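assembly run, all chains below
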Amino acid sequence: MKVKVLSRNPDDYVRETKLDIQRVPRNYDPALHPFEVSREYTRALNATKLDRVFAKPFVASLDGHRDGVNCMAKHTNSLSTLLSGSCDGEVKVWNLTKHECVRTLQAHEGFVRGMIVRFCGTSFFTVGDDKTIKQWKMETPGYGEEEEPLNTILGKTVFTGLDHHQKDAVFATCGQQVDIWDEQRSSPIRSFTWGVDSFSSVRFNPVETELLASCASDRSIVLYDMRESAPLKKVIMTMRSNSLCWNPMEAYYFTSSNEDYNLYTYDMRYLNKPIIVHMDHVSAVLDVDYSPTGKEFVSASFDKTVRIFPKDVGHSREVYHTKRMQHVICVKWSADNKYILSGSDEMNIRLWKANAAEKLGVLAPRERQASNYNQKLKEKFHYHPQIRRIAHHRHLPKSIYHQSKELRVMKEARRRKERNVRKHSKPGSVPVVSEKEKHVVTVVK
Amino acid sequence: MAKVSSKKKLSKTKAKKSSEVAGDSAVKKTEVVYDEEEEEDKEDFNENVTSEEEEEDGEDERRRQKLLEAISALGGKRKKTLGERSEAAVQLSEFSVNAEGEGDKINLSDLIGSMDKTPQVSAKTRKQLKTLQQSNRTVESPLSKQETERIQRDVAFQKAASEQLVFPLNQEAPGPKPMERVVTGWKARTPLEEEIFALLSANKQPIHDPILTPQEEVSMKAMSLEEAKIRRAELQKARALQSYYEAKTRRERKIKSKKYHRVQNKAKRKDFVKQFEEMVKSDPAAALEELHKMELARMQERMSLKHQNSGKWAKSKAIMAKYDEGARKAMQQQLEVNKDLTQKLVTAVNDEEEEEEEEDEGGDPEVLPDFVNDAEQGVDSSNPWMRGKLSEDPAEKETSEIEEVKETEEEALLREFDSRRKRRQALIPVISLDDDEEEESKTAAEEEEESKTAVEEKEESKEEEESKVAAVEEEEEEEEEEGLEETLMRIRTLEDTEELLMQEESAADEAPVPPPAAENPPPASQPAGTNKKRKRGIELKQVLTKATKVIQVPLAHTVEDAEDSDDNQEQRGLIREAFAGDDVVSDFLKEKRKQEAAGKPQVVDLTLPGWGEWGGTGLKLSRRKRKKFRMKAAPPPPRKDVSLPGVIISEKRNRSITLHQVNTLPFPFETHTQFESTIRTPLGRTWNTERTVKKISKPKVVTRMGAIIEPMAREELMKDRNQTMNILSQAEQREEQKLKCERINKNKCKQKE
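ok done. output:
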């Protein structure tokens, strides 16, 4: 008699070693896995909901300053170090991992206006209302040593801003004029003026390192080349720019924060029209900083919020605020693209996550895969109304909410009026001016 | 070739010079930055008198040279002065070739001239050189600046649009590093280490001895010998093939027989047509491109005066034509060529549509319809000027298509005849009028036209402006749409999100419901290219044309017994008995009819009894009144289940679903089908293999944890530029080859003519 038995080849299912992954035979026949769209839609919806639920961007608050935080500086080599200068002339060095102040020094009398860490990370510069530029050692002085600057330069006028060259021992200050300084000399090697009485901010281009840009009080943004004796170009806008930041990954692009509640991204080569107008703030924008990947930037505003904008989109993707945060004066994006630091009027520095719902820390591979998949799902279904509604929902404090509503109404009214005027006037006599063109007055060469 | 090489050399030297100049300027610039102290230094130097004198001497010499040059320039033709060289190597050329003045520029012919006298040179080489001298071929000019820039931008853009960016940019490759690189950064700290170091250095032991020299490393990276050989062989073969081809074409070009060329041409045309037909089947996209090309050629022909019998030759022939049969024939031939070239390509696919377009527009008998002057739609989709209409409403297009479908073929045929007749009528008077009347009529027509065009222009400008305004406004609206929706509500839990959606629903309830036609995107199952026949509705008999496949299941058959069948019968009988009064089919039909009736628009009766007539009971409304005051609504579009007898498709809008549906086509998509196809492809691991899932769900930007991302370095920019330059040079080479082939072809064509 023959007995039939089931026989299986162990080669098909036994692992060679214990470290091998178990082989899981799967049948991808679509007939066996129906309703793929609706199932993925549900997954996407769940992912978006969870995203919103887990969106807890606020990490920590660093308190210790005795006056409003006026400026901050990232350390060039150390991610965990942050420097901040306050309105009473005090400079504090922070350890971000421990959320504590490491060192305090009285740098200036009056405001600390600007601060920058040298490219090597061994020293930093500060400028203040007392017309001085001071260079400080990064290391804390030993026991018994006095806190003294390495170098002090006495200027003729007040300095309002400061930036250091990316690689050379050259830095730039602005005040009544833009000065380029050699670190070894006590007088500027070059100074630029263009019929303006004061500048509010100056920044070196991080890629084309010889280029600079500055915001002037005559509502203009002026471009310079360090090697030339005269400024290159300037664009005059309808309102004053407060600060600007270059895109670290795209050499010719910079974004300026303006008094008219907007931010403008310009291409240095074509200044007659900004590439994008970023709107959403309801009060003057005071500071802007690019993410080190050059894909996004963060802006600080007088309306007590911090907003994150994608570089090529007109509206913000995120808004951060807390009940106690007052006018945000300075903002920085950390060099690892993970955090945002904001310094505000009420003496605190706040540490935020750049992606509100991101899980911090090490992710297990499966976790990472899942989060990537969820991300893609959200991207895929982001046109769907419910997902869109949830993903775009943000809570705003009452005052800001009403203010933005009011602004919207005003804008709509203005638009309507313009439309009516156009309708009832001779064709062509009231030209259509796009939003981008509206805010630029002229470009002066 | 020699000429070519000499030119290349020249260009190289020029490039060198320019680079020098640039370098100089750079130096100057840097000098300018730190100039104060250096000037003082210079003043110190000036005290040294002897050096100054020497300098003066040198300057005198230079001035004299300049003067001489100026004088010589006065006599002869003016030439561009080459800038002075300061390189020692060039001044002391071993061939005693003085490259300083342009007067001594050496031509190839100078060198070859001396070759003639020397007896050592073989006759063969001499011959070769002679042919070289005679050939006046010049090198192809490089791509224009705009074009190269465009290519550069293209390349840069492609890079910018790369799939994934990994930060920090200049990451070191993971894995073990070579020993010496690790060691260089390391310093001895502990006393023991220092001791060992001291010992090593005392013994003259190399502390870090490189395992591989840079050259060796480079050679490691280079191709292997076999690969190089293969590549070389390939190149050789390609070159040989090209030269064969060139020789062949040259030979053919030299043949003077007209008949030969004619036959050749005919054969070629036939071949082309054949190929094209094949291409239509195999590769429709390429065929379409070919078609576009042909269209372009046709347009060019139409634009040019070629083959119009208007040239010098044609005029001379026209004089001769009275007496000479041959001349007449030649002219005729040329006209035929023109006709051939300008003949419209009629393809079966476009035929109907075009005709229908003609019908639509060709109503006016006096003027030729506008589309005669319009460019073809399909000529060049990238060029907006060629498209006729700047923007088309896709919805409009669709509706018009549907309407077109409705017309029966007979009607279309009739209309076509009609329109043709009309056009002929319109054409005849224009052609036949020769006398003064013509002018008069013309002027009148012109005036009319002018006034018309003026009006049209006005309208156009108005429309343009409006469209512009609309565009701007739309843009703004879009911007508004993409922003955040900021409210006073916080989301803390999942329930909050539900609540948020509930709010949205209630808001949607209040809002007026837009027409359902726009709401419901076409069902996903419909393929992209919907046929015309499809739109007419599915014909029931056509659906189930294929016989159902009988699946043979390799299982043991259940035994069929006679008893069993009897049982079956009984069972059926039982069921019939149980559901005796239940006629499911007719119920269903009734239901369906009911639904249909409900969907039909009701007649609205607005008659008021007794109004304008006698009142009282039992009175009938007058016919006139009934006719006037009973409003019949337009018939609704046919139901989707018209041709499906066994199905009821509810056409009511299902709100619970519409909440999850996309209302409008999102921006980057152009058609519903495009958008739906993106939605339809699943991403998850339930439907895809592991590898695909990984590939699909790759994040766009990757950053390393705890790594500082430096701004992009200038060198990287330069690197990119170099890469683009490489790509550019390759592209140029390719272009050159293409141009060569084209030129040969052109020459052939010229010969034929």
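Residues 669-697 of chain B form one domain.

Strands of chain B lie at 165-167, 485-487, 604-605, 630-631, 701-703.

not gonna interpret more than that til we talk
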